[in-house]
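Hi support team,

I submitted a single chain yesterday and got back a structure, but I'm not sure I'm reading the token output correctly. Could someone confirm the output below corresponds to the sequence I sent? I've pasted both exactly as they appear in my results page.

Thanks,
R.
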Amino acid sequence: MSARIPRFSPSFSPAEAWISLRHLVSFGDERKEVEAFEAEFAAYIGARHAIMVPSARYGFYLLLKSWGLGEGDEVVLPALTYFAIPALAKTAGCTPVFADIGETTHVLEPAAFEAAITPRTRAVVPTHLFGTPCDMDAIRDIAQAHDIRVIEDCAQSTGACWKGQRVGSLGDAAYYTFGLTKNITTLSGAMITTSDDTVAGSVRETIDSLSPGSLWKASREAATGTAMMLATHPWIYPWTLHPLIVLGNNLGKDPIHDRFGEAPRTYDELPGHYQSAGPRAMQAAVGRRQLSRIEALNGARAANGRFLDEALAHVPGLTPPSYPPGGEPIYMSFVVHHRERDDLADALRRLGVDTTVGYMSNCADSDLFPEHRTRCPHAETAVAELLHIPVHPNLSQARLDHLAEATRKSCLEIGR
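Hi R., thanks for writing in. Yes, this is the structure output for that exact sequence:
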């Protein structure tokens, strides 16, 4: 039987499953563990403050409010992004302005950012998408010249570096998210980093007013993490999750996408559940353990990504990703371009390789933001051609070899 390779495999481990169980049945001081995680995370990133928040999108909203941004203030965002970020900018009263991405870097293009600036521009969100750092030198220079706040989106890039400095310490503030599919997980929850004492104080005041999230929700998340850890194990995946994915694909569905995705929408007001669940000790304890392993986890991702960079560099019809000079990506995702993207995905699945088109969209051409439409050609191409190739740390060399050969074979078949 040929190899069966899942699109992702969580970094959640048996040790962390035990940690989550231990904290679920204990009733100690919730805050102490959270404070320890925040201190360790701030030290790792190189920021003065780290504040654990319920979600990245809520953290982003709080950052905008901490600077008093609102009606009439423009926020420049990359066109290729997750819908919730521009949606929350609008909820805060700001106007999202979209700028194009690099053709194969997929991150905010500095020249496009500069062209999008108006007298009303107050903030920019360089999104280190797919684990690839933006050109932070150019973006910071442009932002400083126009007195614009820099809010780094590190949702997919914890541990990535720009010229030796970790992303999240390069702007005025940053936000991260720690969902199950990310390179570092606390099962849910997120983090804000900043070296601005005033901003940190504003966010901290809000978060400290929240009660810990429900025990039932935390238990469900721990169970989901344990189940996905087991279901994506190389010995178990071929007989459990893989057949379900194949069945779903045959029915025109994507079970993994349906489980972890959500329907795009905008928000007339801030959803109440964003504000009703403070961090729990269980999340922080898992996060501390993950943080102790992150360099090894990211190192495995990077090694796998560099292997794919080389193995897929000259495959007919396939365009591999590129990276801004000075960036040290963590390869959260390995995204390739192919004009027959859907055919390539089908061919890879027949060879046992699960893939996805991901959750990003061209928000510059979205029905969610019709009044903010603007032409961003590279983002348009990306949403039509991008495909995520597995790059997670739990890939053996044999599976990497199979993955590369399956991709080459599929591209050659499509090109005939």
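A quick pointer for reading it: The domain at 1-416 is CATH 3.40.640.10 (Aspartate Aminotransferase; domain 2). Let us know if anything else looks off.

Best,
Support desk
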